[in-house]
Specification:
Strand 5 and strand 6 form a beta hairpin. The model has no long low-confidence stretch (mean pLDDT about 75). With about 190 residues, this protein is an alpha+beta fold. The strands form three sheets. The protein has a two-stranded parallel ribbon. This is Prenylcysteine lyase domain-containing protein. Its cofactor is FAD.
Length: about 190
Amino acid sequence: MSSHPKPSFGFLLLLLSVQLLILCLSTDALPPPTVCIVGSGIGGSSVAHFLRHYFRPTPSQPNPPNIEIFERRSVVGGRMATVTIGGDTFEAGASILHPKNYHARNYSKLLGLKVKPPPSSEDDDSMSLGIWDGKKFVFKTLEVESKFPWVQKIVYYFNSFQMFFRYGFSLSKMNNFVESTVDSFLKYYESP
């Protein structure tokens, strides 16, 4: 029988600790994760911006994530982009941000975008409305330009009567639905 000394438990624990320490010191930090964003409209571009903005390095993750944006068009902006046709520039889609969409408004300010104020109630009286079915107008309000405010009021009341006669209370119900939806949306801004 050979008389080799048996290693003590303390020696084995020390050996294991040294091996773990060497393994930890030789391992680099984790590679940064890749975040894929589909679309570069206001949603996708703001997600990319705020991922970079709010990234805080940690010992295990010192580098910001790799951000890859997949956009089918060659421009950033999505439905907020503009197109130029015949020398005139037009908005390509959503041109209005709801005044109570604070995140989108603040992001627009951060980017230095010009924000037009919503129309005043005086402008609402002269506003025209049309409903297009893809081939023709199925409904169109009367539009009269006049310097006299009383003429604009008459046209406004005529259009209101015409819309009520055609659509009844459904426009009022839709307006109530939109208001309740906006109220629900505003709960996102409340502190938890």
